[in-house]
Specification:
Layout (H helix, E strand, L loop, with lengths): L3 E3 L9 H4 L7 H18 L1 H12 L10 H9 L3 H21 L4 E6 L2 E9 L2 E6 L7 H14 L3 E6 L16 H10 L4 E3 L2 H10 L9 E3 L4 H10 L4 E2 L7 E6 L5 H12 L6 E6 L2 H15 L5 H9 L4 E4 L3 H11 L1 E7 L3 H5 L5 E6 L5 H6 L25 E9 L1 H17 L3 H8 L5
Helix pairs in contact: 2-3, 2-8, 2-9, 4-7, 5-6, 6-7, 8-9, 10-11, 16-17
Length: about 425
Amino acid sequence: MIRRIDLRGAAAPVDYRAVLPRAEFDVEAAIHVVRPICDAVHDRGVEAILEFGALFDGVEQDGITVPAEAMQVALADLDPAIRAGLEESIRRLRLTCEAELEHDVTTDLGPGARVTHRMVPVQRVGLYVPGGIAPLVSSVLMNVVPAQVAGVDSIALTSSPQKAPFKQFGGGLPHPTILAACALLGIDEVYAVGGAQAIAMFAYGAGPCRRVDLVTGPGSIYTVAAKRLLKGVIGIDSEAGPTEIAVLADDTADAGFVAADLISQAEHDPMAASVLVTPSERLADEVEAELDKQVSVTRHVERIRTSLSARQSGIVLVDDLDQGLDVVNAYAAEHLEIHTEDATAVAARVRNAGAVFVGSFSPVSLGDYCAGSNHVLPTAGCACHSSGLSVRAFLKAVHVVDYSREALAEVADHVVTLAEAEDLPGHGAAVRVRFRD
């Protein structure tokens, strides 16, 4: 079901990125697919969005705005156990968001010379919640809570329209559980738009949806491609596409746990990636046996088998944990689990990962819902340079410079000298003019 890559005895230096499992169809290739979609939304707005909803989601819609009444009905009908789970997830995530909230920092450089590093919330954001293969209600929380804690003034959210009728509202709206979560969090601007057309709607504005400054949230490879294409028109959080898990494990790992965790991410999407890195051939054999046993009794057998047998998944054999760390740092997984002896010390040596899950009882599933961490994370190797979604994503840093005449006089000669060194005399003149008398 899952292929093996043997890196034992590899002669150094090795470009692990070139040999590790990755999907054949990447974001760059998808840009060519989404460009005409984004152009159409730019040119024709809601008309184009509705056409793409019919084409890609198989749903005929009269409009893209979700009625406030639909969200209230969805919340009223929400299973109490699901509501309790959502409320606990919100509580934990809000605590971690509030703890990481950055505050203004003021530096006094001398009498009358002050620079303030001021944190300013982004004014308007568009939040994307996947609703195609699975209605990811947890992504509502992961997007909304940090935006609210950051103090964003205007929050719009979108998710794919569904075919299934929604009581008296019929089809064409996002999944009721997603709408219930929006109501629970007080989000009242919600749209029934998915895919690349949703990102273009946020970037350009369309009909009732005004353009936004920043778009966040995970999605399909086409959604991610649209974010890459439109970056600059809008800000983006990171390229959070089809999910991936890497597990670094040694002989102490429980093969049943490892297999279950690989399966947990494979059930997201046929393009999801599940990778085990281990120096133990015995563990590799046991995990393969567990995969055969566990996959056969899961609900989404076909989807999981497709994911595990595709080129983006695999078991990677290494000489030892040192090489294993080199491999997982090169892979830069969205989710990285550490199942080793002294897992805390091993985890401390990880440089590149969206999130690190330490030990046998910190599965990725915990992070997906109730750990208090955020599950909107960079994929496809982007964790080597990008971070997961947090309060910081919704804040901008602005330097506020406040100098008195005396403070400026103290450095005026330096400013003039450096301006002349760069052949920018106007810069120096802008200082000299203040001391003409």
